Amino acid sequence: MEIKISTLRVIECGPLKDVIIDFNDSEKNQPQSVTILAGANGSGKTTTLELIFSLLDLFKFSPEANSDFINNLNIVHILKQTEYAELRLIIDNEICIVFWGEIEHNDKIKNIHGIQRYFDEEGNKKWKIYSKGHIPKKINAFVNNLEKTPLDFPFYPYNEPKNYQIPTILYFPYNRELLNVKGDQVYREQGNYYFNYRYQINRTFKGSFESYLIWLDYSDQELFHIVIQFLNHLNFGGKKFNIRRKDLSVIVTTKDQSQHELSALSSGEQSLLIMLLEIRRRIIPGSIVIIDEIENSLHPEFQYLIAKSLMNLQKEIQFQLLLTTHQHEFVKIFGRNNARILTEF
Question: CDD domains from the entry (predicted)?
């Protein structure tokens, strides 16, 4: 399955009063592989990403859910602060709408899913799940099955692709913090595959990024070589990564052949390595990666590196990339035709 975002319609949510944000190529009218939302603080960039992530999360609610499902949304949930929101998706070349609020029924669109607001005979506001079509049904069944039978990271195409029938949505919010690089023990790092996954202040690696690499070196040589090859192709100034088994450490070899430990990398390099590897080991073709404030915690010298690395990864595994930025440099790197300027900055 391939999921792509086409448009977002928003009525009354924070700075977004009544807007349609188009993620399509102006010539082909098809979803772009990269869209970067740019603008000053308060222009609605983060609001846009939060709405997209929250709307996609509605696929977890099935039509058979009990009437108390709305309480599963936190009281400060962004959808509860929104009059209406509608995300138009292209899924396997079919239109699929996921929405929140009062929607006008459209018989021409076969796949619609969302939480519909209505009023009972006494004028009380009520909510119900509205869903039709085979696509929402398939996604909902897969998401619910994951809760019963978790899958490990796919690291496509290493694991069996047929088990990962639905792509993943990865969201890196602006206040993300990825820990740790170095730890005291080597752990078997396990993690579950999710349809909709948000990174917060998250100890992604139970032990550390280093222990994850060491564990792979001993337990799964095939996957270890895939990971090391991926890291070495990132072109971190010619740096290469490998394991020194005698003292169980990850060694970085620089362009001039000098060596140092992984923890000696700058904080920007460490964050970049972890983010890119997390994306690589979780996504399958057809996924969506969302990054708020891509420049967050990055020294200017790494701005081009992360942009280039993400674009190179798209050549290896097809996915849609949505970004926000305050920096003109990222608009230049990704191209003005891929930018949506919400306000001048």
Answer: ABC_ATPase
138: left (phi over 0), alpha (psi -120 to 50) or beta: alpha
AA letter at 305: L
Q: What are the sequence ranges of the domains in the chain?
A: 3-174+269-341
Strand locations in the chain (E): 3-13, 16-22, 34-38, 84-91, 94-101, 111-119, 125-132, 169-172, 177-179, 196-198, 201-203, 240-244, 249-253, 259-261, 287-291, 319-325, 339-341
- Other CB atoms within 10 A of residue 72 CB: 10
Q: Are 2 and 317 in contact (CB under 8 A)?
A: no
Q: Please tell me which of 88-102, 167-181, 196-210, 286-300 the model is most confident about, judged by mean pLDDT.
A: 88-102
Chain centroid offset of residue 148 CA: 23
pLDDT at 192 (0 to 100): 80
204, 190 in Cβ contact below 8 A? no
CATH class of 3-174+269-341: alpha beta
pTM (global) more than 0.85: yes
